[in-house]
């Protein structure tokens, strides 16, 4: 397994261009199965999760190529609706294939998906949504078999605004007969991006970005070329890293409107932020201030995917902050690792009480999941001495070569890969 070695204590500085959004690209790649022909998607980052999705599409019979940041998928030869168990297990987002495959082939076999170890991550809302559209679902152990002649539009209310369930139902309903409405839908920007992509192919969807989405089923979609939105979580990660290292960073290709809650929180902590079109400038000359209370909730509230990164800044802030995690129950795994670096954090159920310390110290720590790993990298950059982050494959799921990206901002960070038969170098 790769490791990252970080010499901390250097403020980040310079300019960086933000990658395309993983969480927008994944459902869009899955949705390409809804059309027969060649789809071209631009600004798709090189990530482990994207590789897995493209491998699944190849297993289903598609041709798929990813060169530079463009993905070309030809779905004309797709023949299978069986997603292999091993690939299903390696990534939670494999569940996105369910909606498109049932819509295109009238059947799909999948398995319980895998993903980050951040909580239970059920799929009941996905299944109930598809059943409401007329799919018959049989669960045999981890295997899920789903049939439908042609899906029929329905009124679907989600008990919780799940991002993935909203997207899966949208994709299934696009080719269903009649009208579908999803109420209490998730409002994340990635859902708006999926709507734009599907509508570019000829779908008739309105309402993404609000809590009610309406989909008028169409007979057929047409291939298109599309560019995904900038990654708001990568943007937020770099913003927090700039502030935690007391640096000065310019981020290009961002969408500041997608980061209103983070910008607000960082300003309250005393971080200087200037916004100009798609550019965000972040600077932090002094020790940040603690923030009394932050709660993660569905968009547009503070995102769970930035909770661990922000916690590093608060661990260095002046005063006591409280962070409440409302989305995933297992999302404080980074706390133990941060404590080993000198952070003073106490967890009680879903709340973390963070007493800021003047400095953190380098240590050997383990990335337990994607965003926790990103937080440890920020902690390493902001601390005194050397930090080794292990289990980097978690970070590679969502950040395109994080060491190259941060190296451009002057970070002293290198990756070491195992050498066969000879342990880890150096
Ligand atoms: C997506 C994001 C992920 C982010 C999360 C919340 C992608 C690829 N991933 O994940 O980065 O952290 O949104 O913003 O876009 N739930 C159920 N039943 C279901 C589905 C979800 O109970 O059928 C629960 C989950 O256990 C969790 C909550 O709903 O507690 C939110 O999950 P959801 O919004 O579905 O997240 P994902 O789509 O998996």
From TrEMBL:
<dbReference type="InterPro" id="IPR001986">
    <property type="entry name" value="Enolpyruvate_Tfrase_dom"/>
</dbReference>
<keyword id="KW-0963">Cytoplasm</keyword>
<feature type="domain" description="Enolpyruvate transferase">
    <location>
        <begin position="7"/>
        <end position="404"/>
    </location>
</feature>
<keyword id="KW-0132">Cell division</keyword>
<dbReference type="InterPro" id="IPR036968">
    <property type="entry name" value="Enolpyruvate_Tfrase_sf"/>
</dbReference>
<feature type="binding site">
    <location>
        <position position="92"/>
    </location>
    <ligand>
        <name>UDP-N-acetyl-alpha-D-glucosamine</name>
    </ligand>
</feature>
<protein>
    <recommendedName>
        <fullName>UDP-N-acetylglucosamine 1-carboxyvinyltransferase</fullName>
        <ecNumber>2.5.1.7</ecNumber>
    </recommendedName>
</protein>
<keyword id="KW-0808">Transferase</keyword>
<comment type="similarity">
    <text>Belongs to the EPSP synthase family. MurA subfamily.</text>
</comment>
<comment type="pathway">
    <text>Cell wall biogenesis; peptidoglycan biosynthesis.</text>
</comment>
<dbReference type="InterPro" id="IPR005750">
    <property type="entry name" value="UDP_GlcNAc_COvinyl_MurA"/>
</dbReference>
<keyword id="KW-0670">Pyruvate</keyword>
<keyword id="KW-0573">Peptidoglycan synthesis</keyword>
<feature type="binding site">
    <location>
        <position position="305"/>
    </location>
    <ligand>
        <name>UDP-N-acetyl-alpha-D-glucosamine</name>
    </ligand>
</feature>
<dbReference type="GO" id="GO:0008760">
    <property type="term" value="F:UDP-N-acetylglucosamine 1-carboxyvinyltransferase activity"/>
</dbReference>
<dbReference type="InterPro" id="IPR050068">
    <property type="entry name" value="MurA_subfamily"/>
</dbReference>
<dbReference type="InterPro" id="IPR013792">
    <property type="entry name" value="RNA3'P_cycl/enolpyr_Trfase_a/b"/>
</dbReference>
<keyword id="KW-0131">Cell cycle</keyword>
<feature type="binding site">
    <location>
        <position position="327"/>
    </location>
    <ligand>
        <name>UDP-N-acetyl-alpha-D-glucosamine</name>
    </ligand>
</feature>
<feature type="active site" description="Proton donor">
    <location>
        <position position="116"/>
    </location>
</feature>
<keyword id="KW-0961">Cell wall biogenesis/degradation</keyword>
<feature type="binding site">
    <location>
        <begin position="22"/>
        <end position="23"/>
    </location>
    <ligand>
        <name>phosphoenolpyruvate</name>
    </ligand>
</feature>
<dbReference type="Pfam" id="PF00275">
    <property type="entry name" value="EPSP_synthase"/>
</dbReference>
<keyword id="KW-0133">Cell shape</keyword>
<comment type="function">
    <text>Cell wall formation. Adds enolpyruvyl to UDP-N-acetylglucosamine.</text>
</comment>
<feature type="modified residue" description="2-(S-cysteinyl)pyruvic acid O-phosphothioketal">
    <location>
        <position position="116"/>
    </location>
</feature>
